[in-house]
Amino acid sequence: MVSSRWLPLPILLVMLLEAPAWGQFNNARSLLAELRRVGVRVTQACEPGLLGSFSDRRREIRICPEAHDSDDEVFRTLVHESWHVVQNCLANQGRVGTRRSRPIARLRPDLVPKMLRETRRSDLRIVRSQYAPEDQLLELEARWLENYPEVVENGLQTICR
User: Fold this and answer.
1) What is the mean pLDDT of residues 44-62?
2) What is the average pLDDT across 29-52?
């Protein structure tokens, strides 16, 4: 597998979309299509130290391929940031907007124990140490859902208009 470290994002995304043998990357095409549908673009322009980010004001996900060690990590970051789009739509009547994002776990608190069990311990430490208390559930949810790209795509389809 080619390292994302050496590829510009547009080339990497084309490779991900055109590589059926890469299993989970098959979801990239439909995920990117859903992001386009809701008016969110995916770009490569990052601040040092970030893997990716979502800006509601710019309606943009930024992916930082040079900060990742593998193509798998790039895809997980795309899934993660896409869930932040869903959280934002949840708070803005189904559209990407500037109201503060809302975790779906506020509607389904029964999911929180499952999130805590299934999220990597290293990610839990990062959430607790690097995020403000009011942002921890948003981040926990996005990190948990990195493992469920089909759920993220479904969230884009059903929650975001």
Assistant:
1) 92
2) 92
Q: Which two tokens stand for residue 63?
A: 């992916």
Pick left, alpha or beta for residue 16 (phi over 0 → left; psi -120 to 50 → alpha; otherwise beta).
alpha
Tokens for 156, please give them.
């884009």
| pLDDT of 71 strictly over 80 | yes
- What is the rounded CA–CA span in Å between residue 121 and residue 66? 24
List, as one string, the DSSP characters of the chain: ---GGGS-HHHHHHHHHH-GGGGGGHHHHHHHHHHHHTT-EEE----TT-SEEEETTTTEEEE-GGG-SSHHHHHHHHHHHHHHHHHHHHHTTTS--SSPP--GGGT-GGGHHHHHHHS-HHHHHHHHHHS-HHHHHHHHHHHHHTT-HHHHHHHHHHH--
Beta 41-43 vs 52-55: how paired, if at all?
Answer: unpaired
Tell me the Cα Rg of the chain. 15
If we measure between CA atoms, which residue out of 79, 83, 58 comes closest to residue 137?
83
